[in-house]
Specification:
This protein is an alpha/beta fold. The chain is built from 5 helices and 7 strands, in the order αβββαβαβαββα.
Length: 176
Amino acid sequence: MKAKFLIPLALFGVLIGFLAVGLKRDPREIPSPLVSKAAPVFKVPQLILPDKTFSPADLKGQVWMLNVWASWCVACRLEHPLLVELSRSQVLPLIGLNYKDKREDALKFLGQHGNPYNLSALDVDGRVGIDYGVYGVPETYIIDKKGVIRHKQVGPLTPEALQKTILPLIKQLKNS
């Protein structure tokens, strides 16, 4: 008779254990299967110069940042001043990937808030985002000289993430 009550109690204890472990995790730390793998190849039109295209191959041999953003994204507006500041330091090429947006809206956004990007590419239908495993915008990728993704930041960049993780990684990658 006691065994009947112990089994559900034990299962409940296991469930509480999984819940406790899950609550201790940072929801921004979503592991990406693409980290340490070659960045997906694509070729899409540029936002400002739509008759020109951009491909990651254009930056082979350089450490660069890919920031996935959209004019309709509230979190993108939050991180945008930090990107503008980062672009002034010219630490690395900063490429924007305008995700599932209208070209006119994206141009208006950059006109109003400043354009931190060396260039921004258009991903109107979201296919490039799918290849990169984008969960939502904003997301940021650090790509090394060989075209390998070395870091993925889910959600808006923060001064803390920039200072503690991203800038040291960029320095390390540039020196290797």
